[in-house]
Amino acid sequence: MSHDLSTPVPPSRRADPGKPRSRRATKKKRRTGRIVLLSLLVLVLALGGTGYWLYSNLNGNIKGVDLDKAIGTDRPEKLPTSGQNVLVLGSDSRSGANAGLGTGKVAGARSDTALVMHIPEGRTRATAISIPRDTLVTRPECTKKDGGTLPSAKRVMFNSVYSVAGPACVVKTVEAMSGVRMDHFMEIDFSGFKDLVDAIGGVDVTVDKPIHDKSSGLDLTAGTHKLDGTQSLAFVRTRHGIGDGSDLGRIGLQQQFMIALLGEIKKQDLLGSPTKTYKIADSLTTSLTTDSGLASLTSLGKFARSMNGVDPATMETIMLPVAYDKIDPNRVVAAEPQASTLWKAIRSDSTIPESAKKSPATGG
Predict the structure, then answer these.
(1) What integer pLDDT is reported at residue 356 of this predicted model?
(2) pTM of this prediction?
């Protein structure tokens, strides 16, 4: 989660440094209720039954970032087809509304969750690629929040980029490491995530084994539990209570939760409850930041309609293939040649080879 930048805390330290760390394999493929589709679904529903003043209020909630202005023109080429790539960020802050939502002692935020959502030509399917937050990357030169220049740096933790230079620099970093142009980006702050879960009355999740994590505050017995917003945050944040304690295991829980969240929304009659629909849309848009091209309900609705042919049941989420770093085993690096093969397939809007989905760090 959020750590002091001057003294980074290894995210996957084992409890006993004297014992070799267990590197349990996690599933290399998981279905997930994608946060992009979830967000757009709620917004489209809101568009269908609200008055102008409600529309204006929701529209004013959304914050926009001009990527072309922030990044410049030195960017990868767009896809040769009508396919789209969207970077989805879940930001984890310890300030403002998030101050009491978990562990951590410093202000600011990091991109706790990052997905590259690839929607191929035809827009009848989609693939989400999770980038582990502990991945060591080369951060390109970026413009800082105060307008100054942040020099390029090698071997920085991926999730630190957001806190030192904001979402535009994260987009630039992802484009630099992948060679893939991000057509759009969406960021949802975790305080809004909490409000969203509470607005729908909680989400049911099932765990096969007990999870006890003092760091996140999560304490679950094996079985099915209805989680409220605060508990849901702990669930998607926990890593010490599962697997080998690394971020790779947490990615699996995050994906599991998104499936449950989307399923809960589908079960509820949102069209039959305008009040609940507005409450959900309001809590969501308040914590939503997008690129300037999506920073309105009209633009989000148009983008959502363009993806009407995507069936969530056929959508696939994979993890960027990674291997444990040879210098620091508590960090991971992109595994080659798998990562390059994966990004090449995305750049050409072609089928991703199965070999490009295998991750040495998870035994896949």
Answers:
(1) 95
(2) 0.76
